[in-house]
Every structure is written in structure tokens, then in C-alpha cells.
Amino acid sequence: MPSRQLRSVPWATQLEWEDVFAGLYADDGPQSRGRQEWGVKRVKAWTSRGKVPHAVDSTASLVEVWLRDGCGGAYGPPPVSEHEIRLMYTMAFIRFVNGVVDANQRGMYATSVASIADQLGLPGWFVDLRHAGTHDTLPTLPLLRNGCKQALQWLRSNYWILQKTYLANTATEVRTLLTRYKVAMKQKAKGTEPPTLSIPTLLSEITTLTTSDNYNDVLLPSLLDIGFLVPTAIKKRADLPMIALPTSLESLWADALACFEHSWPGFAEDLVLQIVEVVTTPPSSTEVQPQAATSYQATMAGWAHYCLLNYILPKPSGWEVSLEACLRRPNVFTRYLVAAFADARPALADKLQPFIQAFLDQQNPTRGEPFTPPLPRPPPSAAINHISPPCVSNVPKPAPKPTPTWTPSPWTLVPAHWYRRPAPIGCLPDGRVPDLDLPDWFDTEGEVLVQTGVVQLPVCHAGTVGQMEVDEQPPRIPHVPSPRPRARLEEAGHTHTTRNDDNDKTMETETEMDADGPAPPSPAPQPRTTLPTHLDPLTPHHQHNHNPRPDLQAVAARVMLL
């Protein structure tokens, strides 16, 4: 059976595609706008990966303009002029109609846009709106808003729902054919009753329904379900510690796996990756999951071991992704798979042995010592006396015992017992390979990520910050000393006052002496930079601002001063 040509899609799984579909078509409520914006950003990420279907790109463009317009003007006027909104609507609509029509041009001579639109079920006034936006006066804003809503509805019915329904129906048919294949193989093994359809015919129907770009979402979930690769009866499954498949179970699905790998090269590797994810994902505590049983996970690991030995490791290359997946998720099952790599590749045995040993140490906590912090801590009494020496009672107390001097040190030798549980270089102490992939929320634009300690400042172009009068010397921000406690100030005879002058927008700190003592000399004025009121980081306006969202321009101006 010849291999099919692969077709690349920008989404990783069908679940990601469905999440984007749900986000783009979320309700227009205030809480749903964030989901729609996330859907638009995800489509932009898909565009950077490769070619995106025209229906997906048009949906994201129309939704983006709809959000720019305040959901059709439902949330007040947009931040741009009406002419700009009309231009954006018109361009998105023209690209939508042209992309749908051009994809269906057939023959040597071009067919009219109106006739192709009629064949595809596009409303006729879509073509008129596209013609008016291209060659005539821009359509009115209410007409463009109505066209955007109907275009999104047409895309939802003719692409998104159709694609989702097709995959669901295909998965149901494939599951039925897999059940018939299992029954036919059991009848063949017993020799009691000939199957109604030959086994090659059943496998041919499965490979006809399934393609190289959807077997991850149609075929693999059914194979990983209980009743197929994993028998329903627990006594027919594999078990620890050997994780060896029963001979009857292996012969039941060997022909099917060989056919699938021949039809779609790389199928076995995708199956191994799915199995590694299943056997290393912790079960949810809120529901009972049969897949969390040890016998289920052991049987899945046995099938991964079978695919490694028969389809992946015999190849000279192409097994690196499977090995990395096992190293990133260490447990008893992935250790069994890593050992298979070491046995099949003698050149890797010495390099993989530290990982295998780290997996064993993780499974047997008694092999190592418990974790203790390397840095010493000072005695509590010494720390208290160091922080507040005046807070000592006047009542006579016995002489304290001498306490050893404590000097904090930034560097300390690692305790020797840490080396009793070694880990490979570049791994965490438990032997796991660190995952450096960034989460989805990290692509947020123009926000200050205070919680994570990452500050992203906008670029301040000339003329946007304001006019600044800079002295010859580098400016310094005046230091405002922190006030001392009231009791100690009264005892010293000082009065600490703060004056806010609204005229020059500065803050001054004065310390005055009473009549008993002379006033200290005032320090020489320091040169400073004069900023506009709304950008000066030292004005009372910023100190009394209760808005939790920081002013990015003020932060940028202060960073420029520093």
C-alpha cells in the first residue's frame, strides 16, 4: 500500500483546533471578549507556523475588526474614527469573498464571481458588498456590521461545524471498524467461524477513512481506549514488574499496527508519544479514571516497548523525539522504555545509565538523604538583637551566655550527602529534564507582568514622553528619607513634616528643630529633571493613584532617569 503525501497543519491537535473555534465564536459579553482575543492571537501564532486555511484566517480577521469596533458598537464608540473602521471591515470582507471564490476557479477561462458564489451558497449581496468596497463608495457602517455578522455565521456553518462533524462521524466509523477487526481476529484465532469480511478489507476501510493529518485525532484515541489495545479483562493485561505483553494480545493487534505504520510512516512514533503522555499524566482527584489503573498503564507501556523494538529503533535515525519524551517524564514506565533504548543502542548505554539510575533513586526515596538547605541560619536570639538592639527591658537580667558569632556568607559548600543521589548534568535533582517551553500567557503584549517579576516596557519614541530639561550632569532622583518612629522623634525634639506643593509638583521634606537647638544647615539643591505632571514619578498624583494597573509611560520615564 503506497504511503500518502503528508499535509501540514498549524495546530498540534484537534483539541487545540476546537479550543480556537470555541474562543472565536464566544458570546459578545464583556467576559467573553478575552476568549475572542485569545482566539485571534492563536490564529496569528498558527500563521507564523505555516499555511492557515482561508476560512480560519478570514474568521480571525472578521472577529478582530469586530472587537476593534467594540462588538459592533455595543460597548461605546471605537477608539478610532468611523472611516478607519469602515476601511477595516471592507478589507476583511473583500479578502473573505475573494479567497472563497478564487479557491473554486476551475478551467481555462475564469468564471464570474457571482456564479461561483451562487454555487457555494454565498448570499448574492456579499458579492455586491465586495464590489462596492472595491470599485465604488465605501459601504455604510451598519451595512458592514451586518455583513460581518452574516459572514461569520456562514463560515461557522460551512467550515467550522462541518469540519467538526466530519471528524466526529469519522471517529465513530473508525471505532466500529476496529471493533469488527477485533472480532474477526478472535474468530480467526479460534477457527470456529469465518469472518464476514476479510481482515485486509477491514484494515483497508480504516486507512481509507483516516488520513495522515487526522489519525492523531480519529484513530489513536480509539486505540488507547479500554477494549482495544488494552483488554477489558484485567487478567489479560500486562503487569509489573516485567511489563511484557501477553502473546495473545500481541498477535491480536500486530497486523493492524503494521498496516497503519505502512500507510502513514511515523504512526508508531506518534503512538509512543501518546502512550508516554498517558502513563505519566497524574489522574484527576475528582473523578474515577480507569486509565489510572496500574494494569492499564503497564499494558500501554508494553505496547510502547513493542513499537520501539519493531518500528522505531531498527531505523538508523528518527528515535530522538521518543527518547526525549521518555526523559522528560521520568517514572517506572518510562525507565523501562529508556532501558530499551540502552539495550538496542550500545553506544547510548553509558550515556543513559545515569538517567536510569536517577529514575531508580526517584522510585526508592530511601536510597538518598532528605533535602536540607545548604545555607546556615543565624540563632533566633542573635537575629533579634541585631534587628532591634534598643528593645531591651531595664529589668536586670543575668549575663547572657556567649553566642557564637554568625557571619552570613553568599557561598557555602554543598553537603557531602547530596552526592549520594547523583543526577545527570543539566537535569533537576530528581533526574527530570527541565522543560523550558514558555506558557501561552507569556505572549501578552504591552503589559507589566508584576506577578512573575518580568517587566515589559513600551518603546518611548521622541516627542511621546514630553519635553525634558536636562542639566550637564546626570540627573538624580531626590532621596526622601524614611521617617523614624514618632516616639524617637519626640524624644530627639524633631518634627517631621511633608509638604506637597501643587504649583511646581515637587515634594520636600523638612526637619525643624525646636527653640532649644539650632536648625541644621539645609543641603545644597541637587540638579533634577523636570517632567510634565502626568509623567513625573515623584508627584503626589502617582503616590495616591489607586489604579492597580501601573502607568507604563511613567515607569519608562523613571527607568530612563535611572
Automatic annotation (TrEMBL):
Highest taxon of the lineage: Eukaryota
One annotated GO biological process: maturation of LSU-rRNA
GO cellular component, as recorded: Las1 complex; preribosome, large subunit precursor
Compositional bias ranges of the Basic and acidic residues kind: 487-508
GO MF entries: endonuclease activity
InterPro entries: Las1
Biased composition regions of type Pro residues, renumbered to the chain: 475-484
Bias (Low complexity): 527-540
Pfam families: Las1
Region feature Disordered, mapped onto this chain: 469-550
Entry protein name: Las1-domain-containing protein
Naturally occurring in which organism (per UniProt): Powellomyces hirtus
